[in-house]
Structures are given as structure tokens and as C-alpha cells.
Here is the input.
Amino acid sequence: MDDHVTMACERLMKVSPCAGKPAEASMLVNVPKLITAYYTDVPDPKVSAQRVVFGTSGHRGSALEKAFNEWHILAISQAICLYRRQQKIDGPLFLGMDTHALSVPALASAIEVLAANRVDVMIAEKDEYTPTPVISHAIITYNRGRKTGFADGIVITPSHNPPHDGGFKYNPPNGGPAETTITDWIEAKSNEFLERNLLDVKRIPFGKALCAGTTHRHNYLDAYVSDLGNVIDMNTIRGAKISMGVDPLGGAGVHYWGPIAERYGLNLTVVNEAVDPTFRFMTVDWDGQIRMDPSSPYAMQRLIGLKDRFDIAFACDTDHDRHGIVTRSTGLLSPNHYLSAAIFYLFQHRPKWRKEAAVGKTVVSSQMIDRITAKLGRKLYEVPVGFKWFVDGLLDGSLGFGGEESAGGSFVRLDGSVWTTDKD
Here is the structure.
């Protein structure tokens, strides 16, 4: 969507008087009440809003509205086990979560079902939070060169949605968000389990599931950070001596930025290391909701206020697959602007990318990308909203880059192989 259209749409929205201001105490989610609702409230499958519904790539909702409760996660986890069996996916399942309050109980529910079904599950060391791209990276890395025994994954996150929400996404062996045919099958089977009061859902107690021989610890952080230099030219960044600020917005990557800076010798400062399920440190979004949206100038007010402290600063949403960039001269950049700049740069500095590799964009993204693509002499590949449409092209090399105006991008490695494909 072009910027003038975006601004026109914003003028039609009713902006809350609280927008851009620190969250007030009355806005904060009651975490004990939320967790209690997760375990005690039972969804009614006859009510459409209480059924399992996969959106772009996952099921989302609030336990307070009986839209994301224990029954949902038990049903979806069992459906994923059946899907794996049907598709003969018998490698490990990489399981990660973000910092939303409902992520921890959902992880426990999922492990109970996965262990009962004897699925080899890889969970983070020290129960660390795991960004969505890290799960994608783990799947792709494990599956590279394999003919059998493929891995897949689950990411527990509602992305940038408000603190009272939970989310549950399935990533097949390609590492990206599951395509519609897969999510439709999982959704239908999950709702069958709900309708039958969880009959045939296998489950063992959480303590026993954690000690099961099929439950393993995995060092996601080291594996991801050590491979990052194969994607980004860290020597150039380090040599430029630019000062960088990062606000994880209390999200899953909060403990990743320090190791990245240390390993590659970057002048990078994490300006906020707080993790709080109420997200009380956020400034309120346009509609008066707390929302960890790095593309929103209202949610990004704190980082915008620090723009003169750094040469460049950036923030990520809660599962770290979207990003916002702040500069001294402009403040918060339009995603369409920096996506265009990234495309123009990358296609001129990645000589191992295929000559026929196309540029991917979603239909809502700017026509600037069309013009940049034409200038580069590349083919444009336009898809509906959702990064799942880019996965196959990134995997086979027919796409070099995929992005959309909601501030996410995926691209292939320096050597031409795929890096990561997940952005919600």
C-alpha cells in the first residue's frame, strides 16, 4: 500500500487520546485471572468464536473470551501429532514460545500431548524464550540434505497482539508458516476433538512429560547467533562503527541481542531488557490497546524519543519476526521505504543468488517495490498477505527476497541457500 493511502486510512480511524502515551494501570491485563481462565474455562465448539480457527498461519485468541484455552491447545497438539503421522514426519519437533502470559501454560499443555504421542520435542535450554525465526532456522538447518526423518515445529505466539492474547502456530518441514491446506486439516481435526470432549487426545502429566525420553533440551541461541554471520556481513557493520540501539519490546529475542553484539563486536545497546507479561513499559497503540507493533509510531514512542542517541535504532515485535527502524533524520521509517532500500542493495551485492531470482511482495505493499524491481531487471512475484506464500520460492531459490508493509522480510543466505522463511 502506498504511503499516501496509508495516511488517508489512518485519518479515517478514530485515534485514542491515549495513543503514544505510557500505558495506564487500568489498561494492564490481570495475569492471574488470565491464567486461571486458561485452565478453568471450557470452550463451546457450537460458538464460532470459541472454536479453533487458523488465520494467516496459526490460532489466536484470549482465554478471557474462551478463544485460547487449555482445551484448544490440547486439541491442536493432538491434531498436529496425527498430521505428522499421516505425512510420515518422524524427526524432532522444535518447540518455542514468546513472552505473552499465555505462552508458558500453552507450552506445558503442548508438551503433555507431544510426549504422550512419543514425539521427540526440542525445547529451549533454561526455558528460554525463542523467536519465530530461530525455530525456522532450527527446522531448516536440521532438514538440510535429508531425505527422511524430517523435523517440523510449533511456535507459541500471538505475534504483536495485546497481552491478553495467546497464539499457536505450526511450521512444517519447510520451516515457514503452514500453508492453508495444512492449517485447514489441523483446524478441522482440532474442532472434532473439541466436539468430542477431547476423546482420543493423548496426554501425560507435565512433570512426567518433561522427564520423558522424547523430551530434549536444545541450545537455540548459540545455534542461531553463530550462523548469523553467514547471512549478514558483520565485518562491514563492525567496520562502519555505527552506534545501534535495540528495543526488544519485551519480546522473545530479549536475550539474543547481547550475545549477537558480543560475538560480532558490534556497538549495539539494548535499551530495554524488561520482560513483563503485562507489557506495562509500552506506549499505547492508536486504538488505546497495548500492542507490540514495531511499525506503529504510537507503540514506538519510547524508541523514537531516543533517535538522537544512536546512528540507527530498531525494535521487534514479540516473536521477533517483524521490525521497525528509527533514524536520526526521519524517526520511524516507513516499512515500504526500507524494504525498497533492502531489495535494491541486496540484489546488487549477493552475486551467488540466481540470476532469475525474483522479488516477492504482498499485494498491500508499495508500488515503489515494483519500480525498484523493474530497475534491477528482476521479476516481481506478488502474493496475498502472509509469508507462507514465499516459502517455496525461498527454498528453491526462485525468490531472493520476500517482504510486506507490516514490517517483515525474509531472504536467502550469502551462499544462495535459504536462511529463514517465517514472518507472521
Q: What stands out?
A: The longest helix spans residues 70-87. Residues 232-333 form a domain with the Alpha-D-Glucose-1,6-Bisphosphate; Chain A, domain 3 fold (CATH 3.40.120.10). The two ends are 18 Å apart (CA to CA).
